[in-house]
Write a structure and sequence with these properties.
- By secondary structure, this protein is mainly alpha-helical.
- Among the domains are: 296-377 and 429-512, no CATH class; 379-414.
- The chain is 83% helix and 0% strand.
Length: 512
Amino acid sequence: MNNKSRTKNTLRNFVVGIGAQLFQYALSFAARTVFIILLPVEYLGVNGLFTNILAVLSLAEMGVGGAFMSLLYKPLHENDTEKLRSLMSAFKKGYALIGLVVAVAGLVLFPFLDLIIKENNIENISLIYLIFLTGSVTSYFYAHKIAFISADQKLYIQAIYTQVFIIIQYTLQIVVLLLTKDFMFYLIIQILCPIAGNFVLAGKVNRLYPFLKQKGVPLDKETRTDLIRKVTAGFYHHGGYVLATSTDSIVISAFLGVYWVGIYSNYLLVISMISTFITLTFNSVSASIGNLVASSDKTRSFETFQKIQFLNFLLAGFSSVCFITLFNPFINLWIGSKFLLNQCTVILIVIMFYTGLFGMQKSINIFKETTGLFYNDRYAGLIEGLLNILASIYLVQHIGLAGVFVGTILAACATRLWVEPYVVFRHLFHRPVFVYYKNYLTYGLTTILTTAVVYYVTSFIPHDSWMGFFVMAVACFILTIGIFVLLFFKRNEFKFFYEISARGINKLMQSI
């Protein structure tokens, strides 16, 4: 695939994805607002808790997705349909087995729900859990089709189909809540719409790639060995990721109650939306990165990484400044002061975001994922996950809710924040990792400085009304961008993205 095709697909993936996401966000907030008005906050907690429990059960996925994705890039680049059929046949069987394992594990956990949910006053809690489990299990039977589209840089197709069904889902949920105020109907719609969307999307994949309908030959010994090696390493990574990111709500529920899971879920909703935007941005370029590494030299790959890391900073740094400055004013105006967390806890949540896989770690992680470097740091993720659980359980008993987030941050600092860069720089770029740490520290200090300045200046703006909040938000945006530009306008990475933006704006103006 040439540079022009890579750029075209990347831009198309990004533009389509962003457009769909913006509309989805509006409906998502509308649905959440109706939910909060009509149902107790505990239902929000149960919704978040079961989502996290099923994420933990996804340990059965064992990192298969990442391993298979890394094997798809080369045959796609070479248009090797025979190899692609073989891989997809194995992929389909693997995910069918995973779905079965998740179903069994979910049923085994079923009798122990009372140990996880403290102060449970929710009716039909067992049925709610089984509905969540059903939705999770069915998703695995379509995963191989979605992965193939992503690897072939046609993520925009998935975005269109997914967003259509999400829009249908939110619209129906709002109507059902207004008419019935029944959480069970709300939940059934939440499960059925993704199933229908995946079914329709799978049909589209079959039409786009008819050769995948043909039975593939068994994988050759070399590929099987490589796959097993990567899946084994992927299990540790996936297990660690799940334990590090999906157990916080479980710990909160077990020690503090589902009420606090519900309060935290409102902050998590906003962060998840921004994380989705960041993920969409990087997913739009992931296949291009995999294709680039497969077809270019190490020097060019490293130069691309430098640009991607700077873009990562612009997104994560800007988001973090806005979160700390605007989170509580927004939550207060949106749903009221009774749903607020104290500012110190908010700062910990934002630090957790910034240092996490959806924050500044995204750039180094995506290079590791797309190039298949799973094996070299295979134990780090699992160690991080175990440290997170132990630290969070210990600290939540001593300092409450904040302790859960402190435990997550400490676990990341002890493992992922330094292990992943070391592996990528040593085995992919063949360069000293000092360059990465220098940039990471520079970007981190810039984010702290910018946050301090913006938070202080905007604190003088009255924000007890939506108009005041709008003025505060505009000031936050302008100040943050202004400081970033002032500090980095001489850097090559800044000039690169500035030129791309300028060309895009110029073409847009010419077309008007």
